[in-house]
Amino acid sequence: MAFNHLPAAMHDALGPLSVTPVTHSVPMAKNHRPGRPPESGDTRPSPDMILDRLATGAGRAARITHTEHLPPRSGTHAIWPDRIRPEVISAIGKAGIDHPWAHQAAAAEHALDGESVVIATGTASGKSLAYLAPVLSTLLDGSEAPNGRGATALYLAPTKALAADQRRSVKALAAPLGNAVRPAVYDGDTPVEEREWVRQYANYVLTNPDMLHRGILPSHPRWSSFLRALRFVVIDECHTYRGVFGSHVAQVLRRLRRLCARYGADPVFLLASATAADPSVAAGRLTGLRVREVSDDASPRGELAFALWEPPLTELHGEKGAPVRRTATAETADLLTDLTVQGVRSVAFVRSRRGAELISVIAKERLAEVDRSLPGRVAAYRGGYLPEERRALERALHSGELLGLAATTALELGIDVSGLDAVVICGYPGTRASLWQQAGRAGRSGQGSLAVLVARDDPLDTYLVHHPEALFRQPVESTVLDPDNPYVLAPHLCAAAAELPLTEPDIALFGPAVPELLPQLEAAKLLRRRASGWHWTRRERAADLTDIRGGGGRPVQIVEEGTGRLLGTVDAAAAHTAVHEGAVHLHQGRTHLVRKLDLEDSVALVERADPPYSTVARDTTAISVLETDTEIPWGQGRLCYGSVEVTNQVVSFLRRRLITGEVMGETKLDLPPRTLRTRAVWWTVTEDQLDAARINPEILGGALHAAEHASIGLLPLFATCDRWDIGGVSVPLHPDTLLPTVFVYDGHPGGAGFAERAFHTARAWLTATREAIASCECEAGCPSCIQSPKCGNGNEPLHKRGAVRLLTELLRAAPPEPPATDRPGT
Known about the structure:
Blueprint: E1 3-5, H1 47-54, E2 64-70, H2 86-94, H3 102-112, E3 117-120, H4 127-143, E4 152-156, H5 160-173, E5 183-185, H6 192-201, E6 204-207, H7 209-216, H8 224-228, E7 230-235, H9 243-262, E8 268-273, H10 279-287, E9 292-294, E10 304-309, E11 313-317, E12 323-325, H11 328-342, E13 346-350, H12 353-370, E14 378-381, H13 387-399, E15 404-407, E16 422-426, H14 432-439, E17 449-454, H15 459-466, H16 469-472, H17 486-499, H18 506-510, H19 514-523, E18 527-530, E19 533-536, E20 556-560, E21 566-570, H20 572-578, E22 584-587, E23 590-598, E24 603-608, E25 613-634, E26 637-657, E27 663-668, E28 674-684, H21 687-692, H22 697-714, E29 726-731, E30 741-746, H23 754-760, H24 762-775, H25 800-812
Parallel strand pairs: 3-8, 3-9, 4-6, 4-7, 5-6, 7-8, 10-17, 13-15, 13-16, 14-15, 16-17, 20-24
Antiparallel strand pairs: 1-29, 2-10, 11-12, 18-19, 20-21, 22-23, 23-24, 25-26, 26-27, 26-28, 28-30, 29-30
Helix pairs in contact: 2-4, 3-4, 9-17, 11-12, 17-19, 22-24, 22-25, 24-25
Domain Helicase ATP-binding: 108-294
GO molecular function: helicase activity
Domain Helicase C-terminal: 335-487
């Protein structure tokens, strides 16, 4: 039997540790912008005051395991390069900015020198202005050209919301320049009647990689005048382009560069990133160009109080009698309620769409008990909403009409929500870069701010709230992406050939894997080689071969059965787990039950209902080894990395009582299996190692299974992945290795680089895994260390002590890890 754990939108999955909390405190500074007196009439409470109020109440203070204080920082000014037009400098001055910060001036200088540059500084450090100054100046120059359209610029954002927000900012900043700068958003929400105007007249087009891939590049003849004049490509929040999504975007950008060259343009790329390790290396891998780096943040920063918060144990018992902590969702809803009552403007970030809706619903119910006017000042914000719903929520948040928002990461990126005082983060977001990005949403006006990380009941979150040094004493991660992934590269070669026939000189642009792929695409009759190059042979659009978000397949539409109203969409890859028959679906605070999932027509029919439970899908997984790329001895055991095929099937779902998470029952499902060819890391142990670890056959399956669960929970600490990006399988006797084996694999076709990073950090990764299990205060295993609510085998069997002994024996002979510079992808 194989024991498995599949990547999916897990709720509160694995986790905690009972370790003496580490505390660290720096004297708090006064709550005002460094170097300036407090604003007249600014009566907002300090971060410490807000936190003290949150900690008031029975047992509340004990939930804070650590508080980190980041003191305020003063800024360093510079002067704009003399090539920036005086009209632009004047417009910037009218916006209240007399002098740039040193990093803004440096980035602008590189841009004007024709050098691609990445600005990797902290949240609210003015990255937008660093690239806007040279862009606006160049557009102003172009507007005075005697003939032709003049210069153009393209802005790419990972979300529609960020592009819309940036358009507002650009329009306001460029207002004194008159008609010289004509910004316009071009995405799926742009009305058809406006699109032709954007193509013909806009000179600063804001879009996203999806629209560039599906809409602009395939229609490049209609964009020829824009592309011919393209001087700058701005890539905002470029640290989000990682894994499979980042690999797709890298190939989209290579297609863009190829078409620009066809029209005689060679644009400069300006990238903005949150603080990241080796940003110039990641930016170079993304664009395929040499990129200069500006990472010395010269901006001022208000004080930040950052609290780590662990929900308490409840009187309930879960599977196998394990103790159950209060859910992070319920705890976050309480904190958002308390902040709203205090009048503190806040955002609560949560990983899942359902979680955002649920937090909003709970907070509204509790606020109604305090003041009937307050529920209307809290809302949910997530992907899948209709465009008009998203825009209305963004306006309400900007205006201050909303005090509290439960949001997915759609609001994490760059949107300027000035005036927020607090951020609550429901569960570790997967990377330190995302953690700091979310925390930085508050305090953007220079005031002090509070951030609270609420731990989920899973191994990584509990490890972090009891090991704060892993958050506050470690650098942010490197960005992992692999543009040469054949599952990513192949459809983009087809799309490029459909745009213009591929020629020999294009091979170097798209990477070293191209020569091997082209014959395969010819054999599949997707491309045909002629004298002029490789041509696309099909009638259908080549750009439709792939979904660059990595989901694959047509999105499933969620339709209200009685009215026919479209409520939203869900990615095809998530449909089996999110909108199976019987699933609970939340939309705008209203609960629906899925009555039918039609996979052929990609439609889920739902009806209004108010069940007292949520639903969680269960699945089973089998794995086979296709090819072993690398293996090294760990004593008698082996550590391996290579290609695998994973077969998964959703087989049932659990009904869990709201708030408590208590399991109410299980219902079988009949859904087709899905296969995935991907990359994996795996380790084996021998009979002698099992004897040394005192592992007998009766507990072997449980020990392997427990080690697998916990290692999946801890991997995001070592690779730039979310736990939803990875899966695992454990087998007491695997037919390919003929030994007890634990697999951890990338949950994306062709891999995403996460398993490879796990292979190269295996000693540290598995050491942390062993420590997390051994340190947990439970007796036989719980969600804080080895249990997973997403486990396809219902957490049966698991053996906590066996997992500790097994990992101890495995690590005893583990070789030292190579230095970081020797590892691929670093």
